[in-house]
Amino acid sequence: MVPVARQFFSQEIDRSDEQIDLAKAALYIAQEEYQDLDPAEYLNALDTMAEELLERLPIQRYPLRVIHTINQYLYEDLGFKGNVNEYHDPRNSFLNDAIERRTGIPITLSLIYLELAKRIDFPMVGVGMPGHFLIRPDIPEMEIFVDAFNRGEVLFPQDCQAKLSQIYGQPVALRAEFLRSVTHRQFLARMLTNLKYIYLQQQDLEKALGTVEKILLLFPDIPGETRDRGLINYQLGHWFSAISDFESYLAQAPHAEDAPVIRKLLSQLGRG
What we know:
This is Protein SirB1 N-terminal domain-containing protein. The protein is mainly α.
């Protein structure tokens, strides 16, 4: 039986990308974990925070001044911070927890920042840099980035290159696509991918399966996710679902490097 929260999530993303309400969709993801969660409570919390922020804004809303004001409010007044010590705690990936606990990982803190910016009419967009999610003002020709995980630090492209090299422990060439804005669906898929790997590390296969299923609601044609769902179903003993996923994967990617492994698993399941 499909969880009610999954149905709400599916309804929310069943619209044009720009019409998807990121906060609502993220709260529906969390509602699958916390069945008594009331999304309206946290949407109201964001509204209240934005109202308080509006009172602090300077008369002249130059972008860097607005960013400074948001940073002062979020990190100094409210005490939000990146969760460095428990980075892989699944609670860091849920918007309700990030609001309540005032801590999270880059993408959840970025979402809070984006939602406040939207409510004060200062549009920003997510930037899916490898290894570390950023945001930036949605202003043409303005190449500044904000690191919501690190107290709203303002970065320029050369700073992003240095951060990439720091993350990967070796020099990394900055490519233009690393700093492109992400769509709403890509944003949600990245949130879910973080959760997926946390659950797989914890061997919580049922929850990992739920995250993969939601990723496939966003992007039905990603072969790797279909394969991963099959592998999780296989481990859970859901044989018919595993067969269906493996066959779909091989139809989508017949020459994939791991195709022989998947064919072997199908053979073990009597479909080789």
